[in-house]
């Protein structure tokens, strides 16, 4: 995976390589192209009453490769599945490895969820690399839109005959910059200009911007988006152009960690030498795994790759870390901790009962007890 990164929905070689490993070891029942996605798959072993999913993310980042460590995520999940396979029936377990495409762009897990690929699971687990060890990172809700401005193209020597769509982008970005002083500490707004002209001597009549808004939950995302949208409307008004906003390209909840499973993972990772901070786990990222956590007990711990603060996720430096010895260590620790956590859950009578009992699912809250 490190040497051959593939983008969202195009992870054909990655999926094939993982399935080749599973078939070599034997015992897995494989389904390919699940949920209507060509690169998604499931591989199931065991026939026990507790059915647990392991998520293997497949996609990489444009121009960076595995700068978010999905190679580590996938290898950890495969390692956990292979470790559990020989003892699955003994533990009364069914283990389902899910190859999940397009986390970075496309919310692949949300698509698979809607198509029933996660149906029948009692819990879903994965582990993610970053620069710190955190058992329950605070993962934000997210909204993602495309904004298009439509003006009138003209020769740069006659700008008075044109309506400059790029000017609308500039005004909107300045307005968003001024808005930041009113934003909560947990809020994030980021944009990228996808198109704003092709030639310096042509006034651009079209411009496209993508924008992401993050906050603690979707209600706060909606609240902040209303302010951000007004910034884009101001740009259109100032430039005299029209504006279109897409339906949300992604719309993701914040993550709900199951505290019992997270506690087991932390214990197992600590036994392997990992150190978790006592201060609150903080993160400003988002993931489509959050959608899974709304529907079933789930965890998304993160493990450290020892690097400089500027070498964090979504950088070329992090891609190098993930492909090197630090990535190998995270695969080993992550895979073992996931496997041990699932085994512990299978052997814990009270936890197994909570996970498998019929009716509306309940996840364990951080304060103890359960919540709907």
UniProtKB/TrEMBL annotation:
A UniProt-annotated Pfam family: M20_dimer
InterPro entries, alphabetized: Amidohydrolase, Bact_exopeptidase_dim_dom, Peptidase_M20, Peptidase_M20/M20A_hydrolases, Peptidase_M20_dimer, Xaa-Arg_dipeptidase
Domain of life: Bacteria
Keywords assigned by UniProt, alphabetized: Hydrolase
Domain Peptidase M20 dimerisation: 142-235
Cross-referenced SUPFAM superfamilies: Bacterial exopeptidase dimerisation domain, Zn-dependent exopeptidases
Keyword Ligase listed: no
A GO MF term: dipeptidase activity
GO-annotated cellular components: cytoplasm
UniProt-listed GO biological process terms: folic acid catabolic process
Position of the signal peptide: none
Keyword Transport attributed: no
Family: Belongs to the peptidase M20A family.
Official protein name in the record: Peptidase M20 domain-containing protein 2
Native source species: Nakamurella alba
């Amino acid at each position: 995976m490190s040497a051959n990164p593939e983008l969202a929905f195009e992870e054909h070689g990655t999926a094939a390589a993982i399935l080749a490993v599973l078939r070599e070891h034997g015992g897995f029942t494989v389904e390919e192209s699940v949920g209507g996605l060509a690169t998604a798959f499931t591989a199931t072993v065991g026939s026990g009453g507790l059915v647990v999913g392991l998520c293997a993310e497949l996609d990489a980042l444009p121009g960076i490769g595995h700068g978010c460590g999905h190679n580590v995520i996938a290898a950890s999940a495969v390692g956990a599945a292979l470790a559990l396979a020989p003892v699955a029936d003994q533990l009364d377990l069914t283990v389902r490895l899910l190859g999940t495409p397009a986390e970075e762009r496309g919310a692949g897990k949300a698509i698979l969820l809607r198509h029933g690929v996660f149906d029948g699971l009692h819990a879903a687990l994965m582990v993610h690399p970053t620069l710190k060890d955190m058992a329950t990172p605070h993962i934000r809700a997210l909204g993602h839109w495309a904004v298009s401005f439509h003006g009138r193209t003209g020769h740069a020597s006659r700008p008075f005959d044109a309506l400059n769509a790029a000017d609308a982008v500039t005004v909107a970005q300045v307005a968003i910059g001024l808005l930041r002083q009113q934003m909560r500490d947990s809020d994030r707004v980021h944009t990228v200009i996808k198109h704003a002209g092709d030639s310096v001597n042509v006034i651009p009549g079209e411009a496209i911007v993508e924008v992401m808004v993050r906050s603690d939950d979707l209600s706060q995302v909606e609240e902040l988006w209303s302010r951000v949208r007004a910034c884009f409307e101001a740009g259109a008004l100032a430039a005299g152009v029209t504006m279109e906003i897409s339906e949300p390209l992604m719309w993701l909840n914040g993550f709900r960690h199951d505290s019992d499973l997270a506690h087991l993972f932390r214990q197992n990772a600590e036994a392997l030498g990992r150190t978790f901070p006592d201060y609150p786990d903080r993160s400003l990222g988002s993931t489509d795994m959050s959608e899974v956590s709304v529907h079933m007990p789930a965890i998304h711990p993160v493990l450290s790759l020892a690097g400089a603060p500027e070498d964090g996720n979504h950088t070329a430096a992090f891609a190098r870390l993930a492909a090197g010895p630090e990535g190998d260590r995270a695969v080993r620790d992550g895979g073992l901790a996931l496997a041990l956590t699932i085994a512990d859950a299978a052997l814990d009578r009270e936890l197994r009962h909570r996970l498998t009992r019929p009716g509306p699912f309940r996840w364990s809250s951080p304060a103890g007890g359960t919540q709907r």
